[in-house]
Design goal:
It contains ten helices and 13 strands. The protein is α+β, with helices and mostly antiparallel strands. The strands form two sheets. It has a seven-stranded antiparallel sheet with strand order 11-10-9-8-7-12-13.
Length: 326
């Protein structure tokens, strides 16, 4: 079901759509103690936290903390044909540089995901900008992470352009509440970022299959580049993906959380990022607001006399948070 805009206030209430004020004041301010923010705002800390909990993440090749370490770049990348550079405290996908191959070895020239070349000088300049805080929250000095580039799973090949799609799941009080698949497009420059033009396709919580999507807050049924329908794709291992998301709520201590997972061709699901302030476009992608589902979780917890495991919470979400037909 699509949310067709503009829409009346009455219809918004019927759909249970959560607005920015309610998200910020009720869910983020009340559910997310500020002392836990660094665990998710810092991607390096998030990676370490997930690894300690036994959750799979992309391998870390190096961390660049100071300008003089940039001189070690040739040694760091070594024989790697592909890698990703990202700011540890970046937001919105800014500052992420994806290298997906080499064009020459002497001198080393790499190929960016866009197909454009990037030599060591350009990559070094990008690292310098990261350290200077060009992409960090508040413009504060940052560190750069160089890590494994996820290998594109063929699952979304027909409904994605160049980049690697990811699966965003909202977790509320430890329960997966809503999910979408973010699909790169030409406009998003191959990045799975809705603000830059990617598509968000809703996911049926019970079945783990994609629904119609949203792009720039408009309902879409087909990918603009491949012209294939975005709905009807079954996500393998859906139960396990929901359990991973539920466990992320446990390890961060956050009551309202966004969990981003990628499906690697060889390694399976990998946790890519955690977010203490997940956006609300996921509601448009699913054609339904968050509020009704959140209220169901609250009622469930009011009558629960024990603590459920991550697997039990994932089961409950699949059984009780299927799409509504309003």
């Amino acid at each position: 079901m699509a949310i067709n805009w503009p829409i009346t206030p009455r219809r918004l209430r019927e759909l249970g759509v959560v607005g920015m004020n309610q998200r910020n004041g009720t869910f983020i301010a009340e559910m997310n103690p500020r002392r836990y923010y660094p665990l998710v705002d810092d991607k390096l800390l998030s990676k370490e936290l997930a690894e300690e909990a036994g959750l799979n993440v992309p391998a870390l090749y190096a961390v660049i903390r100071s300008p003089h370490e940039i001189r070690d770049l040739p040694k760091i990348v070594g024989d790697h044909e592909e890698f990703v550079i990202k700011p540890a405290n970046g937001a919105g996908g800014d500052g992420i540089l994806v290298i997906d191959g080499r064009q020459s070895d002497s001198p080393p020239v790499f190929r960016k995901a866009s197909g454009k070349p990037a030599d060591l000088d350009e990559i070094s300049l990008h690292l310098s900008n990261i350290l200077a805080g060009a992409y960090s929250l508040g413009g504060r000095p940052d560190v750069a992470m160089i890590e494994y580039r996820v290998q594109f799973s063929p699952l979304f090949e027909k409904i994605s352009f160049q980049g690697v799609p990811d699966i965003r799941t909202i977790v509320y009080r430890g329960y997966p509440v809503m999910a979408m698949v973010r699909l790169p497009t030409t406009q998003s420059d191959g990045k799975a970022n809705l603000h830059q033009g990617a598509i968000g396709a809703g996911v049926d919580m019970a079945k783990g299959s994609t629904l119609d999507g949203v792009a720039h807050n408009r309902h879409v049924t087909h990918h603009p580049d491949t012209h294939e329908p975005v709905s009807g794709v079954d996500i393998p291992g859906w139960q396990y993906l929901l359990e991973m998301a539920a466990r992320c709520g446990d390890i961060t201590g956050l009551g309202y959380l966004g969990v981003d997972v990628v499906l690697d061709r060889d390694l399976g699901p990998l946790i890519l990022e955690l977010n203490a302030r997940p956006g609300l476009s996921i509601q448009v992608a699913n054609g339904e607001g968050l509020r009704h589902r959140i209220e169901r979780i609250d009622r469930h917890l009011d009558y629960l006399d024990r603590t459920e495991t991550a697997a039990e919470r994932a089961d409950w979400s699949r059984e009780n948070l299927a799409p509504m037909n309003l």
